[in-house]
Amino acid sequence: MTRKNVITLAWVSLATSMFFFFLFTTEKTIENFGLTILISSMYSFVLGGGNGLINDFLNKKFPWSEATTKRAIISIVAILITNIILVYFCNYINFVVFQKAATTEEYFLGKYNFINWFTINIALLISAFLHAKGFMEELKKATKKEVVEQKLIAKSANAQLESLKNQLDPHFLFNSLNVLSSLIDENPVQAQKFTASMSKIYRYVLEQKDKELVSVEDEVEFAQIYCDLLKTRFEDSVDFIFDVNEADVRKFVVPLSLQLLLENCIKHNLATSSKPLLIKIFSQGDQLCIENNLQVREQIKESAGIGLANIVQRYALLTQRNVFIEKSEDYFKVKLPMLSHKPQVVNEIEETKNDSYERAHKRVKEIKSFYANLISYCIVIPFLVIFNLITSPNHLWFYLPMLGWGIGIIAHGMTVFAIGKNWEDRKIKELMEKEKNKR
């Protein structure tokens, strides 16, 4: 029990004791006031604290978001048993121990049955409020989680869009076509090879554009084809070294990451025959590295770093491991995490999020409706009992609405949490399986 809860129960105890002392106590003495505070504190801390502890325990063992039906059934059973025991205990201490208004035999023979029943209803009201509050807090957490997932999906879509925009620089296509044009007259055979390589590059782009991860083997193979085109274009001005361990080729990286990094190397560095640009692609531990000697090209406009930022963003959606960047006076290196398995991708969430959200939204409305009904029952029925006993104590009519409404609540609860909902879910799954088999 938190300090805030203790303070709240203390204020409730004080307010309750003041109410009963000034309105129902005939002898207003310090002793009676102290006894009233003691009794009020007992009821507040035993009933309120007991129900609070039960609710906290159930929240940890059976969270609403993970086991709604089981939690609802266990909650109903737990609050009934707990409150009956706590009420009988508190009333026994009050009437037998403190006030000495009855003996133990008289108390358990039924003299205080009505008082016990009335107090149990009040305790159930407190418990229903606590469980409803716990449910609403859980609902708020689930809503926040849904918002985070929606932001994640939006972020993924943005990353994919940026990836498409940056997959192949338009300048690369323009320069490649110029190279191809010159090769057609000078070396037709080489021109055919160059055209085939360009075809493979764009085919790979189309195949991988919607994937979250690809194997290191596929990405390196694609990078080698891309480097062959660059080599044809720059000749001796650029050299490439590939040194990827055989054990790492079955791991996974973000698609087109090497292409973007190779493009950056060419874009931001000078490459001449006298000062060739050396680019190394190698594996180091559980990272795939691309390193180049630093020969920074003078640029009128500073680079925005969109390509590298896109890679970092896409990795952030898939793993907690970071993309590392090293820069010194002599070299520039980027380290990409190699993943041993494919994590759950955002696309899977995106495919099912709408249906899941609609079902969850409908389910929440049903549960809220049940708890609103239960809380209304716990508030209205005690009021009707008091009104009946004050206006016509010889004619007890409160049993009719109490029993009728109570049966309705039981039926409502079974529909929401037990028979009706389980049968409906099973039937939906059965029909979906039949439809799937037909296809």
Task: Provide an overview of this structure.
Keywords: Membrane, Transmembrane, Transmembrane helix. Pfam families: 2TM, His_kinase. 71% of the residues lie in helices and 8% in strands. It is an alpha+beta fold. It has 2 domains: 240 residues, no CATH class; 173 residues, Heat Shock Protein 90, CATH 3.30.565. The strands form 2 sheets. A 5-stranded mixed beta sheet has the order 2-4-5-7-6, with helices on one face. A two-stranded antiparallel sheet has the order 1-3. A hairpin with a 2-residue loop joins strand 4 and strand 5. Helix 2 runs antiparallel to helix 3, helix 2 crosses helix 5 and helix 11 runs antiparallel to helix 12. The longest helix has 54 residues.
List keywords for this structure.
2TM domain-containing protein; 439 residues; single chain; membrane; transmembrane helix; two-stranded antiparallel sheet; alpha+beta; 7 strands; transmembrane; Heat Shock Protein 90; 2TM_dom; five-stranded mixed beta sheet
Helix content: over 70%
Portion of residues in beta strands equals 5-15%
Largest beta sheet: strand ordering: 2-4-5-7-6
In terms of structural class, how would the helical and strand content be classed?
Answer: alpha+beta
Q: Which H/E pattern describes the elements?
A: HHHHHHHEHEEHEEHEEHHH
What distance separates the N and C termini? 55 Å
Q: Strand tally, please?
A: 7
**Mean pLDDT level:** 77
Integer count of domains? 2
Radius of gyration from CA coordinates: 36 Å
Largest sheet: 5 strands, mixed
